[in-house]
């Protein structure tokens, strides 16, 4: 039988192309808090990529949100350790220890990772092996997530200052002092840095020299980070309001009273002109970016300090009751919930924001666990709580059997 070498060659070429397409699938990068410099919490992603479902315990509570770059997941813990994990299976690549808790998300650009610590240092590390390039000492703890442009890193500190650090050598470019701690993470857009402070203000600073462009005074602390879209600056405040300010002069375009403090940062879907934000009293809102009118709201009943993540037609947000909740972004209808402890308020709180990458969602919890969920199949890993319950049931059964035997022996003695 004669081989048709032309057909065989075509088949081999097609197979190589197909295999190449499989190997080229990689995680959609989420390299900083809220995914991008404008902090919209939304990225266009290839849903064909998804990781295994897995969970890894890092041995310390996690308050910070993970970031993704180059198929690696980076996250810090309360014991001051930054971890690099394989996004596919959670295996550890490297760790780097600081001398204080890490309570903010890293930011990555050009194979360099920047992150702050409660030891007061801003660190610049190599993403491949975690080695340190330089570190800059601020005047107090750094709980603010850094923002990056082409030449500088911007970060806030509990000393009330916004610092602009030169990326190449870690030297100070400029410093702007506010009147209280800065827990809000800076946002960079169009050569301007936007950042909130516990002195109740949102500031707009020129990125080149740190001079003030404008500021806006709210009624309480501003710990929510700004999101930028449609020539507006969006953020929440502890005065219960969500604000939209004119990006050029800081005048109020609209505000919406949620009836509860808003620490959560807004996420924006510009194509649908919708802003999503959660509150301390457990309500999730969808507001129209253009005029602040409410599209829908959902009463969850548990505080939300993290920021919603938008993927496909859905949004996901974690709660203090330990659940990761997913809703349809158009209607607010529930799509899927994942609770490692299965019962609300049994497991640890989720204070960090979820990160989505294609068909995967990564979440961190105060119990020290990182979880990888498959959003395409709405599946999560079997958590440690399953084994706790199994052991508890076995103990209860053993106790029951023991009590029964004791009672039988007493009855036999009486007889």
Structure notes:
By secondary structure, the protein is mainly beta. It has two helices and 32 strands. A hairpin with a 5-residue loop joins β27 (314-318) and β28 (324-328). It is globular and about 90 Å long.
Can you tag this structure with a few keywords?
415 residues; mainly beta; 4-stranded antiparallel beta sheet; Methylamine Dehydrogenase, Chain H
CATH hierarchy: architecture: 7 Propeller
Structural domains: how many? 1
CATH homologous superfamily name? YVTN repeat-like/Quinoprotein amine dehydrogenase
- Helical content class: 10-25%
List the helices and strands and how they pair.
Layout: H1 5-24, E1 54-57, E2 67-69, E3 72-76, E4 81-86, E5 92-97, E6 107-109, E7 112-116, E8 121-126, E9 132-137, E10 147-148, E11 152-156, E12 161-166, E13 172-177, E14 187-189, E15 192-196, E16 201-206, E17 212-217, E18 227-229, E19 232-236, E20 241-246, E21 252-257, E22 267-269, E23 274-278, E24 283-288, E25 294-299, E26 309-311, E27 314-318, E28 324-328, E29 334-338, E30 355-357, E31 360-364, E32 369-374, H2 384-414
Antiparallel strand pairs: 1-32, 2-3, 3-4, 4-5, 6-7, 7-8, 8-9, 10-11, 11-12, 12-13, 14-15, 15-16, 16-17, 18-19, 19-20, 20-21, 22-23, 23-24, 24-25, 26-27, 27-28, 28-29, 30-31, 31-32
